[in-house]
Amino acid sequence: MIRYRRPKQDDAVILGLIETQLVPLSHLPQTVLSQVKKELPQRLGHGVTLVACPDYESDPLGFVHFMLHGDLLYIDMLAIAPAARRKRWGNMLMDHAERFALSRGCKRAKVAVDAGNTAGLAFYQKLDYSIARYLAQSYCHELEKRFS
């Protein structure tokens, strides 16, 4: 099931997923990464975080954090625990995020994928995102999708 984040129950798991699944893919300098990690609790407080879990009371197996800016859905972070991968949790999270955005008038979506994250690139491309540009400063590919 997909549900909204419950900070007291979910944040430790979400922060663990960020630390183990996203941070190792980052090319940011350690000083910048330390600052980003420090700001994660506030960052999760902005936008929307959905979690994937087997049932309502279970700990998350993965999450997506996103923000809406006018007609733009910005996917900020998506991570799935290794044991839960290839079970469609990522697809379900993205489907819920995109439907949430569509219901609020979004016409397009963007996501940044770290250089070298070939699995992430392939995942988003299967969901009809296409590479728009390479952001050399952050070592990321920016992908975009237009909603019809």
Task: Explain how this protein is built.
There is one protein chain. With 148 residues, this protein is α+β, with helices and mostly antiparallel strands. The chain is 37% helix and 30% strand. Strands 1-2-3-4-5-7-6 form a 7-stranded mixed beta sheet. The longest helix is centred in the first third of the chain and has 16 residues, at 7-22. The mean pLDDT is 95.
Strands, total number: 7
Instruction: Name the overall outline.
Output: globular
Note poorly predicted spans.
none
Gap between N and C termini, in Å? 26 Å
Could you state the order of secondary-structure elements as H and E?
Answer: EHHHEEEHEHEE
State the major sheet: 7 strands, mixed
Number of helices in the DSSP assignment: 5
- SS-based class: alpha+beta
The chain-level mean pLDDT equals 95
Beta content comes to 25-35%
The residue fraction in helices comes out at: 25-40%
Which helices and strands, and how do they pair?
Elements: E1 2-4, H1 7-22, H2 30-38, H3 40-45, E2 48-52, E3 62-69, E4 72-80, H4 89-103, E5 108-114, H5 118-126, E6 130-135, E7 140-146
Parallel strand pairs: 4-5
Antiparallel strand pairs: 1-2, 2-3, 3-4, 5-7, 6-7
Short recap of the structure:
The chain is α+β, with helices and mostly antiparallel strands and 148 residues long. 37% of the residues lie in helices and 30% in strands.
Key features of this structure:
148 residues; 30% strand
